[in-house]
Specification:
Elements: H1 7-17, H2 20-28, H3 33-36, E1 45-47, E2 60-69, E3 72-81, H4 90-108, E4 117-124, H5 146-152, E5 162-165, H6 171-175, H7 181-192, H8 199-204, H9 207-215, H10 219-233, H11 242-248, H12 250-265, H13 270-273, H14 278-296, H15 301-308, H16 312-321, H17 328-332
Parallel strand pairs: 3-4, 4-5
Antiparallel strand pairs: 1-2, 2-3
Helix pairs in contact: 1-7, 1-10, 7-9, 7-10, 9-10, 10-12, 11-12, 14-16
InterPro entries: Rpn/YhgA-like_nuclease, Transposase_31
Protein name: Rpn family recombination-promoting nuclease/putative transposase
Pfam families: Transposase_31
């Protein structure tokens, strides 16, 4: 039985950004420059909580760090949005999550009579290239005409979250960012592994960062994380890693063999390398392509590629959405 297609995104994001140095590189590269020197990056402490409900954990992942800002207690809340369709009510969700952070802090520190600063950062990361197009400030969601908005301005909630729209970046721009190798590889693979028309070529562009990961004290474990994600979300067989392994050496080969054996034992990749009924998949892909073309007109090449390289269960899910979806985004959300 294939894994939940969103679970690898969640697991990979958490695995990488639960390391303070990786999270710090993502935060520093996103927040306004005047804030960078005010945050104590050396005392970032991961908090063992999640405020995302079970109903939403296939769409969002969250991580909370405690640190200090100008010497005062503060938190940094990271939320990643995996889906291609922007969540219009993300600002409201962020408000709910921040209230949870503050309530938790009050429970842990009942003697304090002030609330700590919380810096919320949303990372929009997926392989579609669709930009974030939802409000980033809570007041924008409130239905008011301009005159009433001006009159009520002092009383409207002004919460605004920081947005890192990774989905809108092309690969060269992403690779040029000042991030740790693990963070850069993770965000790049979110973009290229699931739906790229030439993922093998693009993954080779990560070779310098992958060499750094492979050469570290936990190099094999780091490569296993990378290869687990690629095998679960991309249309890859083990043979597709040959060129990458040639460049990275024996550690990469050991990581691939161990990862593939484990995933086969768990029944998570047998549909990719063996037992996959190509006829059924190709037939289902043709039917879905025909239905979408009739309903929405000519399809983008990337959409056709996504359909052709997906698993049967995923194609069947998309096909059922044709009946009710009004846009392509709703099909593939």
């Amino acid at each position: 039985m294939p894994a939940n297609p969103s679970s690898p995104h969640d697991a990979y994001f958490r695995r990488v950004l639960s390391v303070p140095a990786n999270a710090a590189s993502e935060i520093r590269d996103t927040i306004p420059e005047p804030l960078i020197g005010r945050i104590d990056w050396d005392c970032m402490e991961l908090q063992p909580v999640s405020f995302v409900s079970d109903q939403l954990d296939s769409r969002f992942s969250d991580i909370l760090y405690r640190t200090r800002l100008d010497g005062h207690p503060a938190y940094i809340y990271l939320l990643v949005e995996h889906q291609s369709r922007s969540d219009r009510f993300m600002a409201l969700r962020i408000m709910e999550y921040l209230v949870n952070v503050w309530n938790q802090h009050r429970h842990q520190h009942p003697d304090q009579d002030t609330l700590p600063a919380v810096l919320p950062l949303v990372v929009h990361s997926n392989g579609t290239g669709r930009r974030w197009n939802a409000p980033t400030e809570l007041s924008e969601l409130i239905d008011l005409d301009p005159a009433a908005r001006a009159a009520l301005a002092p009383y409207l909630p002004r919460l605004r979250f920081l947005l890192d729209d990774v989905a809108a970046l092309d690969l060269p721009a992403l690779l040029a960012r000042d991030l740790t190798p693990a963070t850069r590889v993770m965000l790049a693979l979110h973009k290229i592994a699931p739906r790229n028309t030439d993922p093998r070529s693009d993954i080779l562009k990560l070779i310098d960062d992958l060499r750094v990961l492979a050469s570290g004290p936990d190099g094999i474990a780091e490569l296993q994380v990378v290869m687990t994600y690629i095998l679960l979300v991309g249309d890859f067989a083990e043979a597709d890693f040959d060129l990458l392994i040639d460049r990275l050496g024996p550690r990469a080969k050991e990581a691939l063999m161990t990862t593939a054996e484990r995933l086969r034992a768990e029944g998570r990749i047998e549909g990719r390398d063996e037992g996959r009924d190509e006829g059924l998949v190709e037939g289902a892909a043709r039917v879905l392509t025909r239905l979408l073309t009739v309903k929405f007109g000519a399809l983008p090449p990337a959409t056709i590629h996504t359909i052709r390289t997906s698993q049967l269960t995923q194609i069947e899910t998309w096909t059922t959405r044709v009946l009710t979806a009004a846009t392509l985004d709703e099909i593939f959300a």
